[in-house]
Amino acid sequence: xxxxxxxxxxxxxxxxxxxxxxxLDGQPTTVHVKNTGRCRELLVPGAxxxxxxxxxxxxKTAYDLIGVQKGHRAINMDSQAPNHLFREWAxxxxxxxxxxxxxxxxxxxxxxxxxxxxxxxRKGFVEVKGVTLEINGHAYFPDAPTERGIKHLRGLADCLTxxxxxxxxxxxxxxxxxxxxPNDLTHPAFGDTLREVQKAGVEILAMACDVAPGRxxxxxxxxxxx
Length: 226
Hints:
Helices cover 18% and strands 46% of the residues. By secondary structure, the protein is an alpha+beta fold. It has two domains: 6-75, CATH 2.40.50.580; 81-221, Trna Endonuclease, Chain: A, domain 1, CATH 3.40.1350.60. A six-stranded mixed β-sheet has the order 7-8-9-12-14-15. Strand 2 and strand 3 (27-33) form a beta hairpin. Helix 2 packs parallel to helix 3. The radius of gyration is 18 Å and the shape is globular. The model has no long low-confidence stretch (mean pLDDT 95).
């Protein structure tokens, strides 16, 4: 996945979860943040951020903030990237062999999952979660309580009882990650639910990415530590 028209700036402040103030060419500029999560450990004053220019001339904000430099680590913050990356990765044959169908945003029961797939007689649902929280090289999700995330996990477990396969894929939007775990300190209920659905048969995947300001790609799985 690549991004056009990359420019660099310095993060100043985040008035709300949708916009940030960034210094561009010495001037404070309001930009759109493509991640509504807290990201408090990432968006700190003075951090180098990278942006892509919008091609919509009528938009109030001309730039989208899509990444940040945290020490030596480049982190993609685009919340739309994980689904795009999973689609690329799955269609390249890395998810299930013989994939014949991959459809996004599929409703089943009272849940809407990111993907529905078929491969011969096999069929299933996948929920994709983007991960931007890293502590000492280990990735964690979520960075804030997510009742919606718990609902998705329980919905996946329900799919198993109807003969579908089910998986949740955590796309870690950075490289050099040693493992992935649920963030039990921030939302213990999410971690408890993740362990429960794994025991029920939901597959848990965690994938690291190669990240640079103008690109991001899934590279390899990392250990899931529950």
